[in-house]
Amino acid sequence: MSRETPMYGRREARGGGLWSGDGQTVPYSGESYYGRPALKPSHYRWLITGYLFAGGLAGASQIIATVADLVGRRGDRGVVRAGRYVALLGALVSPIFLILDLHTPKRWYNMMRIFRSSSPMSIGSWTLAAFGTLSGVAATGQVLEDLTAARVGRWTARLAGIPAAVAGAVMSCYTGSLLSATSVPFWAAVYRLLPPLFGTSAMSTAAAATSLAIDAAGAGEHARRSMEKIALVASTGELALTLACDWEWRRRGAATPLNEHPKVGLAYRFGVLGLGIVVPLFIHAIQTLTGRRSATATRLASISALVGGFIQRAVLTFGGNSSAARAEDYLRFTQPGQEVSGNGRAGQRVLA
Questions:
Q1: pLDDT tens digit string along 102-118?
Q2: Which of 316, 348, 339 is nearest to 188 (CA)?
């Protein structure tokens, strides 16, 4: 190639290219890539939705159990027990969803052959394996304590529970990093917000599951009020992060799945915001402020949070696939200096 020949991708501005004659970048002004998607949508469907939900819930449940074990009162033993058993159940279900989605079980084995610190998938696979093993040991110690009241069971559960809670914290958030480490506009636009959003949602659903478990087991009032406070804080954080994601999606022109995909939009507004966040937040706030607790209202809030948490993962999964299938979203999103005006259209500016 001679010096006079332009480099690949550099054409004159008069032809609608990427570079102007004075060396400034000119954002792409087209709306599609020859009428075809620029990205290939992921294969993620309901199995991955279930994995994202169960894994996060299990990780946060282990955190709740460990904190209650270390700093809680004697009346919080029901929270510890329920949290460890819920974490074990989630640790058993999560890899089933993941392996079924891989279609070939051997792929799971191949992922465990190496560890790559630069790969969210590799980090997640090893975290899931460590979390499942440690949660199994903690639950075994809990069973031993429940059946024999032996101190060795309690100490076994505590020693395994601490590293299990650390792995659980990663389990709660890493799936957000896994999705956002892509070129899909709906995920990449909120790459800083998605991991903490998954974390707060995981804590909200874990508090809901633990609350239902201790309620069925007849736990004391102190344990129930502790779970009420955890659920209130988690729901408040989830609402703030969801609204921040909503603002960022619209600012960067990545909110198309919420606006133009009827099922995703309805699920987001009524399932995620309404059922999953506002309803539990309202109930927990009223009961905390008034000091009056209704068992029926608490169950309603817990079930609402669990259903809404699952819908949130579905909205993010299917919304991301819808975003990837729209070439105009990707091409607009990747342009330097692109902004979105009030009417939802991308504005363009030239960068030096």
A1: 777 666 667 767 777 76
A2: 316
